[in-house]
Amino acid sequence: MGRRGPKQEVDLVEEDGPDDGASADPPDGDAPGDGAPSGADAARARRRRATTLGAGLLAVLVLVGVIGQGVVTARERDRLAAVAALRGVLAPLDGPPQVLWTSDEDIPFQVVTSAGHAAGAVEHPDGRVVARAVDLATGRTAWEVDLLTVADGMELPAGVVPVMRGSAYCWPGAPDNRTSDVMLCTAENAVWVEEDGTMRKIAATVSRLVLLDARDGTVVTDLTDEAAAAPVAESSTTLGDLVLLAGRTSDGAQVRAVRRDGSVAWRTTVPAPPPAEPEPGGSPEQLQLIGAGDHAALVTPDAVHLLGATGGTVRRTPRAADAWATDSTDGTVVLGTGGAYAPPGGPPQAPASSTFIRPDGAVTRPGEWVWLGVDDGTAPFTALTWDADGLHAWDSDDAPLWTADVRLPREAVALDGLVHLADGTGLLTLDAGTGAEVWRMTALRSDTPLMTDGNVLVVTAGPTLGEDGGTRLVALDRKDGSEVWRAPTPVDVDSLWPVGGVLLGQRWEQDGLMDQVVVTALG
């Protein structure tokens, strides 16, 4: 609120003479007493005072409005700046995005670096695997390093034609999966071949695991030999400045933490049963390591073991054989099982449930977990789940906050006290505190995740909505769902993803046995 100035004395000065056209003498019978104004003069004075005071009040109200608008503008500017720092948020859009650049090279966006690059691992048809970083502003390669060379390729028997060579991926070294200065990359020369209409994997003979400086691609630590040492690492992740490797022992699983100089900081072993026998042609279930803020989770066939910074088990949560585990945006590990709907013609599924595992406890809630693509922290709920009864919000005390009539929700966006999502009927927005519907749009169904720049929601409209049959980008006011702008997608794309503030569109083209990708950046 603006500060008020000091009070001042204000004199209202009136002319003694009559108004133009008024008689100087009072009418008969209305002679004033000594020193008293006439009735007409008093009325004029009251009018002048009312006009003057009204003008003053209007000026004060205008000033208060300007100051108030300045406060709102500053608050909104601060809010947008905070939202812009979140992963998966677009840079501010004043109108339809334009083409920034196009590349016929595969642009990895597994990691967004602190230098403003998109980085990750890319497999080439000849078996070469590289880690590459691309400047999102220009599309030019900032750096590239080999993870596997052509010489690392697997020799195949005569007549065996590979469908795909090489496998690789990179993870950010930051605990919140946002911009990162380091990234952990793994690569192997495994080969996929097609036999009798089914895909078969030929196990890798060469593997590599490295921690890279995401700013320039230099190798911080080559962990290949350590990962190959007994017990052979099946999974890896980062925990602060450590790289964790998980491998099987004769009676359980071992996690060892490797410093950036290559030395082992600690080892810990947890009891675990062997993996179940795989189906014919399948592979045994792998151990899984998940980064969870200041902790890491080791997923074994029977449990999730939450580990502290020095390797001690903070919490053990039983796990059903068919349960899957993943990380969330707040360091919680989510363990999910069952499903709300069975596949067509399939047997009924058990009711879905989601277990949220944190250092201070674990709680199981009904329904499947709904991932928040963007969460600015203004929603009072800590998690969303959904089942046949609708969408459920849960508060910080793990109590139900509200339930809304929402079916088949996809990725949601929590923004400025509202939660936006797409379901089987279209797009809708709910009050994040009560679950009450704010607006719903059934005429528009997005084929991509909901995207936002913090101000508008950006969705794609399918070909049926475009006069020329093309896909269109549509921006909606987040508060009421009204259309802000609509424009054709500048180029044909099969998918759109928000990465480092820009929209990356991918189009896949067939090139012999391999798919060739063309990437276009919009902003």
Task: Explain the overall architecture.
It is a single chain. This protein is mainly β and 523 residues long. It is 10% helix and 43% strand. It contains 2 helices and 38 strands. A hairpin with a 5-residue loop joins strand 4 and strand 5. It is globular and about 60 Å long.
Task: Tally the helices.
Answer: 2
What is the terminal-to-terminal distance? 36 Å
Largest sheet properties: 5 strands, antiparallel
Overall outline: globular
**What is the assembly state of the chains in this entry?**
single chain
The overall strand count is 38
Summary, kept brief:
Helices cover 10% and strands 43% of the residues. The chain has helices at residues 39-84, 224-228, and strands at residues 99-103, 111-112, 117-123, 129-135, 141-148, 162-172, 182-195, 198-202, 207-213, 219-222, 233-239, 242-248, 252-258, 264-271, 288-292, 295-299, 303-307, 313-318, 324-327, 333-337, 353-358, 361-366, 368-369, 372-375, 383-387, 390-394, 400-404, 412-415, 418-423, 426-431, 437-441, 451-452, 456-461, 472-477, 483-488, 495-499, 502-511, 514-522. The protein is globular and about 60 Å long.
